[in-house]
């Protein structure tokens, strides 16, 4: 079901989303994006450059976090703008569970063109991983 503009108000909170990112996800994303930087697959290399271990691709985390908005709107095409700043990495353990990223969202503004601004928060272990994340959404 596609959400209608008449059903949305400033202050509305989007249903939260819990996302798991596993090492298998990193392999699939690397293949799709052609980003084979060793910080995303080689534990030794990641630690040598000062990271806590293998980390998720920032763009993978960003893309997965957008799911909160597309599911809420009911139509991925309703998202007309999406932006983030990368705040901190998401370390992905070498196990079957991976890293758990919690995503929340809140409608913060109705813009002059009738679109809605939604602020998105993504956190790992209670710390924000995306800064200034927002989506601009056009609803029917």
From TrEMBL:
Pfam families: MaoC_dehydratas. GO terms for cellular component: fatty acid synthase complex. This is MaoC family dehydratase. It comes from Saccharothrix coeruleofusca. InterPro entries: Fatty_acid_synthase (IPR003965), HotDog_dom_sf (IPR029069), MaoC-like_dom (IPR002539). Belongs to the enoyl-CoA hydratase/isomerase family. It comes from the Bacteria. One of its GO terms (molecular function) is fatty acid synthase activity. GO terms for biological process: fatty acid biosynthetic process. Residues 17-118 form the MaoC-like domain.
């Amino acid at each position: 079901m596609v959400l209608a503009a008449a059903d949305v108000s400033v202050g509305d909170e989007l249903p939260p989303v819990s996302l798991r990112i596993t090492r298998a996800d990193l392999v699939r994303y690397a293949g799709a994006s052609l980003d084979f930087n060793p910080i995303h697959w080689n534990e030794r290399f990641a630690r040598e450059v000062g990271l806590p271990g293998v980390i998720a691709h920032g763009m993978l985390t960003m893309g997965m976090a957008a799911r909160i908005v597309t599911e809420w709107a009911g139509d991925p095409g309703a998202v007309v703008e999406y932006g983030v700043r990368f705040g901190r990495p998401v370390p992905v353990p070498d196990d079957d569970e991976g890293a758990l990223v919690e995503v929340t969202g809140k409608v913060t503004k109705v813009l002059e063109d009738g679109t809605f601004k939604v602020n998105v928060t993504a956190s790992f272990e209670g710390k924000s991983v995306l800064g200034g994340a927002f989506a601009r959404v056009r609803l029917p």
